[in-house]
Amino acid sequence: MIEWEEKYSVGITSIDEQHKKIIGIINRVIAAKEFDDNTEDIAEILNEMAVYSQDHFKTEETHMIKFKYPEYQYHKEEHNDFALRTLAYQSRVITGDNCVANAVLEYLKSWLVNHIQKADKKYSDCFKKNELK
Ligand code: FEO
């Protein structure tokens, strides 16, 4: 299981709270894998990922537009990729593929390292300068 650590923090409490949810989703995938890749569990987790991506990305993108964050467009493309990946995994589950859990887990782990710890941290100073806490 993955625990929240300070290294994941972007220094903005409201956004850290949202990021903790994705760690929760990762842990649910790990748990689902332990129960023989239960397809129903994976389908439910993917639905949660879809809701997460809509809500959380909207939060970040709204701030980026408001604060005129210069890397908005690039950042938004990464968000779009996450949403498309989630849809692709959902399609695989619908077509009876019961080996999706591994791919989802690897993707989410890489998202934590390559998006949250890199791309998200880049907006930290800009958001803080605009007094977001
Ligand atoms: Fe926290 Fe850019 O997703």
Note down, in words, how this protein is organized.
There is one protein chain. With 133 residues, the chain is mainly α. It has one domain (6-129): Four Helix Bundle (Hemerythrin (Met), subunit A), CATH 1.20.120. Helix content is 77%, strand content 0%. The protein has five helices and no strands. It has helices spanning 13-34, 39-66, 72-94, 100-122, 124-129. Helix 1 runs antiparallel to helix 2. The mean pLDDT is 94. Bound molecules: MU-OXO-diiron. Residues 19, 56, 60, 75, 79, 115-116, 119-120 line the site of MU-OXO-diiron.
Write the layout of secondary structure elements.
Blueprint: H1 13-34, H2 39-66, H3 72-94, H4 100-122, H5 124-129
The protein binds MU-OXO-diiron.
Note the main sheet: none
Number of DSSP strands? 0
Structural class: mainly alpha
Could you say what the CATH topology is called?
Four Helix Bundle (Hemerythrin (Met), subunit A)
The unique ligands bound to this protein are: MU-OXO-diiron
* Topology pattern, helix = H, strand = E: HHHHH
Strand content: under 5%
Amino- and carboxy-terminal Cα gap = 28 Å
CATH class: Mainly Alpha
The CATH superfamily appears as Hemerythrin-like
Q: How many domain modules?
A: 1
CA-based gyration radius: 15 Å
Low-pLDDT stretches: none
Number of helices: 5
Shape: elongated
What CATH architecture do you see?
Up-down Bundle
Bin the helical content.
over 70%
Mean pLDDT: 94
